[in-house]
Amino acid sequence: MPVTEQSVVIARPASEVWDFISDAKNWPSWEASSLECEQITDGEPEVGTRWRGINRILGRQFEWVTEYTEYQPVNLATSKSVDGKINFTATTRLEEVDGGTLFTYRIDSESGLGGVFGKVADPIVNKVYSRMVRASLDNLADLLTTDR
After folding, report:
1. In tens digits, what is the pLDDT along the chain, a chain of 148 residues?
2. CA distance linking residue 40 with residue 72, whole number of Å
3. Which of 74, 130, 82 lies closest to 106 in space, CA to CA?
4. Residue 134: DSSP 8-state
5. CA pair distance 105, 111, nearest whole angstrom
6. What are phi and psi of 66, to 5 degrees?
7. Which of 56, 62, 75, 96 places its Cα 20 to 30 Å from the Cα of 85?
8. What is the DSSP secondary structure assignment for residue 49, as one 8-state letter?
9. Global pTM?
C-alpha cells in the first residue's frame, strides 16, 4: 500500500489550524491537487461526515467522496474514500510543539495513485504526489501565518 506522509510546523495554535483545515471549502486554497472540496452532509464535522472533491494529479482529474471514520477535534481526523476511482485513507494530525502546531498529513492509497494511470506509473505518480503534498503543507503554513 503506497503511503505519502509529510509534516510542517505552522506558527499558529492548533485550534486555529484545526478551524481552517476542518472546513472543506478551504482545501483548494492550499492543497495543490485540490480543485474542488465540499462537505456534503449537514452539521458540524464528526464521524460519518462526508466530503466530495475533485483533484488533479499529473493532468488527470478524479472525483472522490470520503467519510470520516475518526474525528477528534483539534487533534486527529481520518477519512476513507467511499466513492471514486482510487481507494484511499487520509489522516490529518495536529500536535502542539514549540513554535506552533505540527501538522501531519498522510495518505494511504490501496492500489497506488498511479492506478488511474496504470500500475507501472505508481512509483512516479507517488513521487510527484509526495512533492505536491510537501508544497501544499508549505502553502498552508504560509497562508495561515501571513493572512491572519
Report:
1. 588 999 999 999 999 999 999 999 999 999 999 999 999 999 999 999 999 999 998 888 999 999 999 999 999 999 999 999 888 999 999 999 999 999 999 999 876 555 555 666 777 778 888 999 999 999 999 999 985 5
2. 19
3. 130
4. H
5. 19
6. -120, 160
7. 75
8. -
9. 0.89
